[in-house]
């Protein structure tokens, strides 16, 4: 399974690491994914979601 949010589709991003001498080296930024378990129709469903989606879900459920 790839490293992407199953709700919003956020995946890894590319960027550069910039040193003190301003040299650039490529790097990847990974999303902060966490496993969340939901109960739907008596079944437990676990999905990987990013923390932004998790925060939104907690806000909407309250």
Description:
- The model has no long low-confidence stretch (mean pLDDT about 95).
- The chain has a two-stranded antiparallel ribbon with strand order 1-2. The chain has a two-stranded antiparallel sheet with strand order 3-4.
- Strand 3 (about 35-40) and strand 4 form a beta hairpin.
- The chain is α+β, with helices and mostly antiparallel strands.
- It has one helix and four strands.
Strand order of the largest sheet: 1-2
Q: Give the rounded overall mean pLDDT.
A: 93
Ends apart, CA distance between termini: 31 Å
Strand content bin: over 45%
Instruction: Please state the overall shape, judged from the principal axes of the Cα atoms.
Output: elongated
Number of strands: 4
For the largest beta-sheet, the strand count, sense and barrel status come to: 2 strands, antiparallel
Number of H/I helices: 1
Element-by-element helix/strand order: EEEEH
Rg, nearest Å: 16 Å
Query: Which regions have little confidence, pLDDT < 50, spanning 5+ residues?
Result: none
Provide the structure class: alpha+beta
- Helical amount among residues, as a percent range? 10-25%
Layout of helices and strands:
Layout: E1 13-18, E2 24-29, E3 33-40, E4 43-50, H1 51-61
Antiparallel strand pairs: 1-2, 3-4
């Amino acid at each position: 399974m790839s490293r992407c949010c199953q709700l919003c589709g956020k995946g890894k991003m590319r960027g550069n690491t910039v040193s003190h001498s301003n040299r650039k080296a490529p790097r990847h930024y990974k999303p902060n994914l966490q496993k969340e378990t939901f109960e739907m129709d008596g079944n437990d469903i676990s999905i990987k979601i990013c923390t932004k989606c998790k925060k939104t879900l907690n806000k909407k459920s309250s």
